[in-house]
């Protein structure tokens, strides 16, 4: 059981790293400096943002589960 949780934590951590690196800093996907300033997330940017939070939740939950097993 512990090895399964460890592998799940490893996969989740790599997914989380990838999702964080994909996110554009300061600008959104496809939005350059020529367009107006907008703080709303749309399309792919919104999906990546939500998946990042889901992966953080999974990583924390698996880490807590590893403490008890």
What's the helix and strand layout?
Blueprint: H1 2-22, H2 43-68
Mean of pLDDT: 86
Count of spatially separate domains: 1
Shape: elongated
Series of secondary-structure elements, N-terminal to C-terminal: HH
Structural classification: mainly alpha
> Tally of extended strands?
0
Radius of gyration: 16 Å
Kindly estimate the percentage of residues that lie in beta strands according to DSSP. Answer: under 5%
Structural key phrases:
mainly alpha; 69 residues
Description:
It is a single chain. This protein has two helices and no strands. The chain has helices spanning 2-22, 43-68. The chain has one domain. The protein has 69 residues and is mostly helical.
Précis, in short:
By secondary structure, the chain is mainly α. It contains two helices and no strands.
């Amino acid at each position: 059981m512990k090895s399964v949780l460890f592998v799940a934590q490893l996969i989740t951590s790599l997914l989380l790293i990838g999702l964080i690196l994909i996110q554009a800093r300061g600008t959104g996907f496809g939005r350059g400096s020529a367009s107006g300033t907008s703080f709303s997330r749309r399309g792919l940017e919104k999906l990546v943002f939500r998946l990042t939070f889901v992966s953080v939740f999974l990583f924390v939950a698996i880490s807590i589960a590893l403490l008890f097993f």
